[in-house]
Specification:
The protein is built from five helices and six strands, in the order H-E-H-E-E-H-E-H-E-E-H. The protein is α+β, with helices and mostly antiparallel strands. Strand 1, helix 2 and strand 2 form a beta-alpha-beta unit.
Length: 145
């Protein structure tokens, strides 16, 4: 089983975040510029929420609110579910499926150390299946020839 720690070690380590007082426009620009679909909301070093492109689209744009003046605190998901580095990717997948979410902040002693996305889960599954296929091919063909 792959751990969350192994997953986040393979990533570049960047954590994209805004403050709860920032505008929706600032959050959308950060998402666009970094090609991510969700960012964390961190105030004074503490995780207070998460906001996705969907939140911005549904709660701001479709509601005809101004993204320049709508603050993140009014649209974010406060106190998001989190995981730790010792959780497995399978546990993350179960949480995401049951809670209908696509991103899980990873925390260590209340400090954010990364984010696991549904894309990370899919990538991990594909990698594990590829390894199983190679093992089975080697077994079927014989170990040396």
């Amino acid at each position: 089983m792959t751990s969350v720690k192994q997953c986040i070690e393979q990533k570049n380590g960047q954590i994209f975040s805004v403050r709860s007082s920032d505008s929706t426009e600032a959050a959308l620009r950060l998402m666009r510029d970094n090609r991510v679909r969700a960012i964390l909301v961190i105030d004074d070093g503490s995780l207070v929420g998460i906001v996705s492109q969907g939140d911005c689209a549904i709660k701001v744009l479709l509601a005809n609110h101004d993204p320049k003046t709508t603050v993140i605190s009014s649209i974010m998901t406060a106190n998001p579910l989190t995981v730790t580095a010792s959780n497995t990717m399978e546990e993350c997948m179960a949480i995401m499926v049951h809670k209908h979410i696509r991103h899980l902040p990873v925390v260590d002693q209340k400090k954010v150390i990364g984010v696991v996305s549904i894309g990370d889960i899919v990538k991990n599954i594909i990698e594990l299946q590829g390894n199983q296929i190679k093992f089975l091919e080697t077994y079927i063909k014989g170990h040396g020839g």
